[in-house]
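Pasting as-is:
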Amino acid sequence: MFRKDLIPLLQGNPLSVTQIARSVGEAPKDIEADLQHLLKSLKHSDYVAVITPAACRKCGFQFGKEKLRKPSKCPKCQSTWLSEPLIEVCEKPR
């Protein structure tokens, strides 16, 4: 998948890495690498990435926005009941 094709897919449609991988038929690790590059490239475009970080559904702990894949367990309560981070692309406000 071309990285520029991720922009229309994510525009106004927040998706996790797993959901993106399923929709395009590629491995999540490949999509994660493409997303990392896309996030750097967006600085020079008319778009901005909005990342909703992963969170523990048990205690509410929020992970950092730099982690794009679902963590294995919560460092606070050790729960594995976690939500995946969501990535969305929006146009920069003028």
